[in-house]
Design a protein that fits this description.
This protein has 551 residues and is of the alpha/beta class. Among the domains are: 90 residues, 2-Layer Sandwich (Gyrase A, domain 2); 68 residues, no CATH class; 115 residues, Isoleucyl-tRNA Synthetase, Domain 1 (Orthogonal Bundle), CATH 1.10.730. It contains 19 helices and 15 strands. α5 crosses α17 and α16 runs antiparallel to α19.
Length: 551
């Protein structure tokens, strides 16, 4: 049990004693929430427990706070003060921090990883862009956030699988094939009218050119339906391979790439038939409709068209049913903000199928706006379309792109400053964090050269400067930050934590020397920065950002 858990239990126990003594009326004891005050003068920990309990205990917060302070029993507390309307500020004995640092050091590289949880497996599905073109920066944000969330949940002890849903069935793939066919014919000198719903990006021309380079004009003699069918499979395979390679270059991999085609026709038909048998789907005008209005939708939705073809919704229903059937207890989807209206339809179908729709969580990703020299960047210089993620990576690098994508909450719009992402200065947050890691690596090399050992039994009580104490406190907070970030599905908290601890290290570095001081003092300070480096490295790994040894 860490110090915060122990303090929370002590506060709850004090409240129980106050109830038993008659100082507080019998009531359910509110949950104890602890925070680290923004200023060191306000103590090591603070709680608003008294204000939270005012309604339950029917007393003023300051009266409740006084009863808690009078009865709290915990040897690690030096003193407790009541502040403002009823906050309780706790000042802990110094040895508590040293013990916490020693425990963190003993955990080694595993520090920050929480124990495995005995809970159903989680499925995180993200990106899932149609394999019809290049990944753009919007997909890049989804990729960075999704992979960071998977890493975060795993660090927090959850069993997690990641999945990419390949939309390789339906009209968009037909349009891809027709587009490639048109470009193929054009490149071979044939006159052709480009399809109205075709894809016009340069990557389609590249695909057609690759086919000609490999196979020449062998498909020219085919009847058009046969040729389009052949080109469809070639183009789809190339586009999918490009998606995988671009994502791998961005430090994004998936446990499974799930093909929509595997749902057709059997799994789609089975899901639709089950819903129809339960009266959740009905027939009208030759089509089959989902009664989504019964679950909050503004109108019912077609799942099977009057020509017998399933809609995207039908496949999505079958896909989510398949996820639950594979044994996942919690489903997390990261979708673009334009998919808000789709949620109640899928949840309606899952409820109709007998699943708990609350086990499906949809996280919405807002748009990315790129800026260069203060001006909005809307188009790719090469393709004249939305900026591909590979173009952004080539410009700012993988680390900066990933950190900038993750550093803001996914439900807020992101303004991505390209110039800032390329700066090698403390203004650039990812550079600032990585430089802290590299600077500690340099300190470790210099310490070794000067015979200063890295010791787990260093005399930590010698760490008495404010910069050292604040760094210890931050290190001690890390497991709890992982817990909270995972609970909130908020990898941006890890990005912010990494920046905060880097800042505390930089402050320490300007005040405290390691080389040229007494041996025991040097060993204690070295132990502290080595642990800080491990926490930075662990946080950057969650974000998918490298931790360089030299810069």
């Amino acid at each position: 049990m860490d110090i915060k858990d122990k303090l929370a239990d002590a506060i709850a126990a004090a409240a129980k004693r106050a109830i038993d003594d008659g100082a507080l009326p019998a009531s359910e004891i509110p949950k104890v929430e602890l925070s680290v005050p923004p200023q060191k003068e306000m103590g090591d920990f603070a709680t608003n427990f008294a204000m939270q309990g005012a309604k339950a205990f029917r007393k003023s917060p300051r009266q409740i706070a006084q009863e808690i302070v009078n009865r709290i029993v915990m040897g690690e507390i030096e003193r407790a003060d009541i502040a403002g309307p009823g906050f309780i500020n706790f000042y802990m004995k110094k040895n508590v921090l040293y013990d916490a640092l020693a425990a963190a050091m003993a955990a080694g590289e595993d520090y920050g990883n929480l124990p495995p949880r005995d809970e159903p497996r989680i499925m995180v599905e993200y990106v899932s862009a149609n394999p019809t073109g290049l990944l753009h920066v919007g997909h890049g944000r989804g990729a960075a956030v999704g992979s960071a969330l998977v890493n975060l949940l795993r660090a927090a002890g959850y069993s997690v699988a990641s999945e990419y849903y390949i939309n390789d069935a339906g009209n968009q793939i037909d349009h891809l094939a027709e587009s490639v066919n048109a470009r193929y014919l054009e490149l071979l000198g044939e006159k052709v009218e480009f399809p109205e719903d075709g894809y016009r990006g340069d990557d389609i021309i590249d695909t057609a050119r690759h086919i000609i380079e490999r196979d020449g004009d062998k498909y020219l003699a085919m009847e058009e339906p046969e040729r389009i069918k052949a080109l469809k499979e070639i183009a789809l395979a190339e586009k999918l391979e490009k998606l995988k390679s671009d994502l791998a270059a961005f430090n994004v991999t998936f446990d499974k790439w799930f093909s929509e085609r595997t749902l057709h026709p059997d799994k789609v038909r089975a899901a639709v038939n089950e819903l129809r048998e339960k009266g959740i789907i009905y027939e009208k005008d030759g089509a089959l409709w989902l009664r989504s209005t019964d679950y909050g939708d503004d109108k019912d939705r077609v799942v099977i068209r009057d020509n017998g073809e399933p809609t995207y919704l039908a496949a999505d229903i079958a896909y989510h049913r398949d996820k639950f059937e594979r044994g996942f207890g919690t489903l997390i989807n990261i979708w673009g903000a334009d998919h808000h209206g789709y949620v109640c339809r899928v949840k309606a179908a899952l409820t109709g199928l007998g699943y708990n729709a609350d086990n499906l969580t949809i996280l919405f990703l807002q748009m990315v706006s790129l800026f260069r020299s203060g001006e909005t960047v809307k188009m790719s210089k090469r393709a004249g379309t939305a900026v591909p993620i590979e173009e952004l990576i080539a410009d700012v690098g993988v680390d900066a792109a990933r950190y900038f994508f993750v550093m803001r909450s996914m439900d807020s719009q992101l303004d991505f400053d390209i110039d800032l992402a390329k700066k090698e200065s403390s203004e650039n947050p990812v550079y600032y964090i990585q430089y802290a890691h590299a600077r500690i690596a340099s300190i470790r090399r210099q310490a070794a050269e000067n015979g200063i050992a890295e010791r787990n039994d260093a005399e930590l009580s010698l760490l008495t400067d404010e910069s050292e104490i604040e760094l210890i406190k931050k290190i001690e907070e890390y497991p709890e930050e992982i817990e909270r970030a995972a609970k909130d599905y908020a990898p941006q908290r890890v990005a912010r934590f990494a920046h905060d601890i880097a800042g505390l290290f930089h402050s320490f570095y300007t005040k405290r020397r390691i080389i040229g001081v007494a041996k025991e003092e040097a060993e204690a300070r070295l132990a502290l920065v080595v642990k800080a480096q491990q926490v930075i490295r662990h946080a950057l790994a969650i974000l998918g950002v490298s931790a360089p040894e030299k810069m």
